[in-house]
Amino acid sequence: MPTATKKTASRNTAPGKAAPRKRPATKTATAPAVTARAKQSSKAAGPKAALKTFDADALWALARVGAPSLSPDGAQAVVPVTRFDMEKNRGATSLWLLSTLGGDPRPLTSAGEKDGQPRWSPQGDLVAFIARRDQEGDKDEAPQLYLIPPDGGEARRVTRMPFGVEAFKWFPDGKRLAFVSWVDPALRGQAAQAERRKAEKDRKDSAYVTEEGFYRFWDHALPMGRVPHLHVVDLDSGKVRDLFEGTDYELSRAEPDADSFDISPDGRRIVFSFDPNTPKTLEHRNALAEIEVRSGRAQVLLREPAWDFVAPVYSHAGQHIAFIACHQGLKHTMPQQLAVLDTHGHWAVLSEDWDQEVAAPLRWDEDDLGVLFCAEERGRRHLYRFDVKTLHAFPLCEGGHVGAFALEAGTLVVLHDSASFPPRLSVVDREGDAQDQVLHRIESFNDAALSTLAFGAVEERWYEGALGEPVQMWLYYPPGFDPKKKAKAPLMHLIHGGPHTAMGDSWHWRWNHQAMASAGYVVACVNYHGSSSFGNRFADSITGRWGELELEDVERATDLLLQQPWADPKRVFATGGSYGGYMVAWMNGHVPAGRYQAYVCHAGCYDWTAMFANDAYLWHAKELGTAYWKDPAKVASQSPIGYAQHFNTPTLVIHGQLDYRVPDAQGLAYYNTLKAQGIAARLVWFPDENHWVMKPRNSKLWYGEFFDWLKRHDGAGAGGKRRRG
Ligand SMILES: CSCC[C@H](NC=O)C(=O)N[C@@H](C)C(=O)N[C@@H](CO)C(=O)O
């Protein structure tokens, strides 16, 4: 059992010290030993076949494997697999069954449908999933819950929720499901919700009217007057109960998922994370509550105004709840930590001395003595087991990048990727040390395609950055790159967003490093000051002085790379998205003309005052160190718009109209400013994309525009000159 001592907000002490863990190798991107248990036909290219260039078409032709769910005996995994059709400009997700012991994969649902979030029943007799289907003329207007036996047959619809289903979990008895649906909290019963749905549909006006502080998220307006409630459906009768009906409880309005609640092992209680404040904002700190399923009685388990509590999960014995705690009242950049609550209401942060961020979901190990989760470490993401007695974090699977995992009956499956391969599924051999870890592949959906493509080398480098501190950079080389060749290579910075994220040895479906390197660029990804995965001090170091240290880190990397004999000083570029777009706009106002031949600014933040129109507007002030009405000069001094008179470099500006995180007015203002000053600029504006470009044809166009722009400015002349558009 974990040691859980009484916790107070003022004294943040854990019951012990986290033991130091072994460091992974850091010089080059290394892969664990891999064996193949998959028995798919792998039509690998013959040894003499010429490898093809990895471009946007090749990227979109790859299968996208999603998070696995394991059968209770651990023998099979069910996974969603999405394939896109560039011609038709759309994707289709179907479910596949994979043996964890070796064997052929089997399609469980047929392609053409969007079948997602599969979860195996605790008894192993059914797989539940969420889909929007048209079955024999009965068409879902919103996604619903479906059941299918793993040995095949027709999928059966189990809900007809007027406003659809977002996420779900099985009750241990396998007879009920708990799920999330957005409902009008003032109404009672499903019939009333259905009426409300009809009224919404029949509405002739279109205005969004609100007094809420949190009313839009990412790319959509939150439903007017509806909130996410937890429901239970009985599979035999189809009867649905809204567990929050008549209460003020609701789940997070920011895309509530299955990590926001958990069902106790005896099926009697559900713990959930909720925002206790009114009105809601994206920046509020969540509390934990528990509801008794039969009576519907709920009580707050844990609420501390200075802390944010999310992602609760019961131990197998039901005596403890592991959750993620973040001491935001102390500092807004505080890491997410592992915490445990016991039945007496005592709680403790267990990972306090571990300078890494714990990511949801959490999963108790089978002995209830450890908790499994993923966490970033220096540009990589590993799966850890955190021992709740010794407070030691042990890596079970080192990335690359571990994106998801599932554990049943001693079988541990990971969804993992690296800079050189997209997400794939493997069984982790838990015997021995992670250093010598052995992974057994259980599918090979992309192996045939990958074997025909040329990929370049990936290198991790460290150098002295701002403040004289070590900074990590990843270099992605073009396929066949030979540093000794006479021909010089162009250099391209690909600057990550956040700012508190990191780039590293991972696959990226939108900004694919390999696709960029395949176009001939040496791609540099600097994990500048402020990046996640290097400890809290590093992440927090840029607070109140955005732009400053990050620029120095990027510039020092450029200096270093330009010293390489292969680097072409006439073909140096910087590109970035989101906060990375902010960085290239910042560079345009701070770096002398001619240093970089061109920039690409995707969804870049340009003006932190106008950014108050975004969906996370309360977050900026914490990062910038002030609000614009308190200290306008300080906010302006951290905004590229404040340096517009110094802009000098040709820029491709890309933005999506559905981007509520960085509203498109940011990109348009930047583009207009460049144009007004006669600086070469081009605008690519998508009316139907959000912060990211998600549609195959738009993505292909994006890559085309991106490379065309760099080519047009690749040094054959005006380096150093201000270019007229
Ligand atoms: C994880 S760091 C903070 C995320 C931040 N939250 C609120 O605004 C954010 O969304 N920042 C964007 C400006 C951004 O840079 N987003 C990046 C990475 O999260 C992106 O690629 O979308």
TrEMBL record:
Assigned keywords, A-Z: Acetylation, Hydrolase, Protease, Serine protease, Signal
One Pfam family cited in the UniProt record for this chain: PD40
GO MF annotation: an example: serine-type endopeptidase activity
SUPFAM superfamilies reported in the protein's UniProt record: alpha/beta-Hydrolases, DPP6 N-terminal domain-like
Source domain of life: Bacteria
Polar residues composition-biased segments: 1-12
Low complexity composition bias: residue spans: 26-39
Domain Peptidase S9 prolyl oligopeptidase catalytic residue range list: 507-713
Descriptive protein name: Acyl-peptide hydrolase
Organism: Roseateles chitinivorans
